[in-house]
Design goal:
It is a single chain. By secondary structure, the protein is an alpha/beta fold. It is 27% helix and 15% strand. Helix 5 packs parallel to helix 8 and helix 6 runs parallel beside helix 7. The longest helix has 23 residues. The C terminus is likely disordered.
C-alpha cells in the first residue's frame, strides 16, 4: 500500500509533521492536495472521483446499503472518527494483540483498516466537523460506496511478527468464521500473500462462507510490491477478486497484479481515505479497489436482500465494461466496474457462482482429505504455540495455484516489505515455474500496450 498524508479544512496540520509521521513507509506516491476553496465540499470529497466516474452516485438512487452488514478483515478500524461514527456495529480481534472490539489499529500497517473502511462505508461529516445523524451523509469528508451499510471490524496482525504469536494461518480462518457467524453478508479482505496457494486449514472457513451465502471480496495484490501474480486468498474459487486501475481506467502497473482468478477491476490510484487519527491520506493499491467493489456488493444486497451471493457476484461481473482482451482476461477480469449498471441492469439469474466453488475445488484437489467441517467458533484469544512469521526475502512469484502447500505470508495491502515462510520443496517448485512466470509477464506488458 502506498500512502501520502494530505490536508483538508478539517484536518489542517503542518505539512512537515504529516510527512514525518509516514517517513518509515517504503513507498510514497502522489502530491499533497491543497485545502479546498469550494464551499459545497472539501478537498477530500472532491478527490473521490470514483463516485461519479464509476456510476456510484447514480447507483445511490437505487440503494445506499441500508440493512447490509459488511465485515472488514484488516488491521482494525477506528470507528470513533467523524466520518465513521455510527458505521461500526461490532467487531473482534483474532490476533490476540488487539482490543476485544477490533477497533484498535494494529500490525505492520495499523492505518490500513480505517482507510479501507472509509472508502467502503464512510458517512462524511458536517461542515463544522461534527458527525452526521444515522442514515444521513455529510457534505464534507470521505463518503463510502455504501454509506448506510453497517461494518464489522475484525482486527488481524499481518505483515510482521505478531507479539501474541498467532500466525496468519490461524487468524484468517478464525476471522472469516467470526464474520459469517455475526451476520456479515459481504466480507472485504484487502490483504494477500506472495503465493497463490492457501493452507488446508483455510478450506473449512471459506467453505462455511460459501455455504452461508456470503460474498467474499479480495484484493488482487500489487506489482509494485513485488507481486506479479495474484496470491491467496484472491485465488480461492468463488472469491470476487479485484484488480486495480489508474485514473485513465487502464490496468495499474504498480497497484495491481495479474491472474486468471480476477473477476473485476476498480480504481486503485489517487485514492483518498481516513486515517485512524481523523486526518486524511492519499493512497494507492488494489487494497483500495476491493472495498469499492465490496461496497457495490453491499448496495446490491441491500436492494435485493434475498438475492444469492452467486447472483450478486454475477451482476457485478456481467455488467462490467469489457477491457483488455475480449471477454475474461488475467489483467482486467471481466472488465471495469459499472456500479450503476450493477444496480439497474436486467441480469439473467444464475444458480452457480461464475467464479467457481470452493466446495468443488476441495472435492477435486483434496481427494485424500475428509469432507471439511466448518471451523468452530472462536472461544478464546490465547496466543499460539507456533513461532511467529520469520522475516525473509519473498520468493519469486508463481504462476498457478498448484505450486506450494500454503501461502508464503499474508500481508495487509501488499505494501512495502513482503515476508516469506520458506517451506520444504518450495524453491524447487518455484524454479520449475520461473519460465511460465516470465511468459505471463510478457503477456501482461503486451496487454498494457
Amino acid at each position: 500500500m502506498q500512502v501520502l498524508p494530505l490536508t483538508s479544512r478539517r484536518t489542517a496540520r503542518p505539512l512537515a509533521g504529516l510527512l514525518a509521521a509516514f517517513a518509515s513507509l517504503a513507498l510514497v506516491v502522489g502530491a499533497v492536495l491543497a485545502p479546498a476553496a469550494a464551499a459545497h465540499a472539501d478537498t477530500v470529497r472532491d478527490g473521490e472521483y470514483w463516485l461519479s466516474e464509476y456510476g456510484i452516485d447514480k447507483a445511490w438512487k437505487v440503494s445506499q446499503g441500508a440493512g447490509t452488514t459488511v465485515a472488514v478483515i484488516d488491521s482494525g478500524i477506528n470507528g470513533g472518527i467523524p466520518d465513521l461514527q455510527g458505521a461500526v456495529s461490532g467487531g473482534t480481534d483474532v490476533s490476540g494483540s488487539g482490543q476485544p472490539d477490533g477497533q484498535k489499529p494494529i500490525g505492520a500497517e495499523p492505518e490500513h483498516g480505517t482507510l479501507v473502511a472509509s472508502v467502503l462505508a464512510g458517512r462524511g461529516h458536517n461542515a463544522d466537523g461534527s458527525p452526521v445523524p444515522a442514515g444521513a451523509t455529510g457534505s464534507d469528508g470521505v463518503v463510502g460506496v455504501a454509506p448506510q451499510a453497517q461494518l464489522l471490524t475484525v482486527s488481524t496482525w499481518l505483515g510482521s511478527a505478531n507479539p501474541a504469536g498467532r500466525t496468519d494461518m490461524q487468524q484468517i480462518p478464525d476471522a472469516v468464521r467470526w464474520a459469517v457467524d455475526h451476520g456479515a453478508k459481504v466480507i472485504n479482505m484487502s490483504l494477500g500473500s506472495s503465493s497463490p496457494d492457501w493452507p488446508p486449514s483455510w478450506d473449512a472457513a471459506f467453505l462455511y462462507a460459501e455455504q452461508k451465502d456470503v460474498v467474499v471480496v479480495a484484493a488482487a495484490g500489487n506489482r509494485g510490491a513485488g507481486n506479479a501474480q495474484v496470491g491467496a486468498p484472491a485465488t480461492i474459487p468463488g472469491v470476487l477478486t479485484v484488480a486495480g486501475l489508474d485514473r485513465q481506467e487502464h490496468a495499474s502497473v504498480d497497484a495491481s497484479s495479474q491472474g486468471v482468478s480476477i473477476g473485476v477491476s476498480a480504481p486503485a490510484e489517487q485514492l483518498v481515505g481516513d486515517l485512524p487519527d481523523g486526518t486524511y491520506a492519499q493512497w494507492a493499491g488494489s487494497s483500495g479497489a476491493a472495498p469499492i467493489v465490496a461496497g457495490v456488493a453491499a448496495l446490491i444486497r441491500s436492494k435485493w436482500p434475498q438475492m444469492s451471493a452467486n447472483q450478486v457476484i454475477n451482476r457485478i461481473i456481467s455488467t462490467a465494461k469489457d477491457a483488455g482482451a475480449p471477454g475474461h482476461d488475467p489483467i482486467y477480469g471481466y472488465g471495469i466496474l459499472n456500479a450503476e449498471a450493477a444496480l439497474t441492469a436486467d441480469v439473467p439469474e444464475t444458480k452457480v457462482n461464475p467464479l467457481g466453488s470452493i466446495a468443488d475445488w476441495i472435492r477435486v484437489h483434496r481427494p485424500d482429505a475428509a469432507a471439511p467441517t466448518p471451523a468452530p467458533s472462536i472461544t478464546s484469544q490465547a496466543p499460539s504455540s507456533e513461532p511467529p512469521l520469520a522475516e525473509a526475502a519473498p520468493p519469486a512469484p508463481v504462476a498457478s495455484a498448484d505450486a506450494s502447500p500454503w501461502p508464503a505470508v499474508v500481508v495487509l495491502g501488499f505494501g512495502g516489505i513482503l515476508l516469506a515462510i520458506l517451506v520444504g520443496g518450495t524453491w524447487h517448485v518455484l524454479a520449475a515455474r520461473r519460465r511460465d512466470v516470465e511468459k505471463d509477464s510478457e503477456t501482461f506488458h503486451k496487454l498494457l500496450q
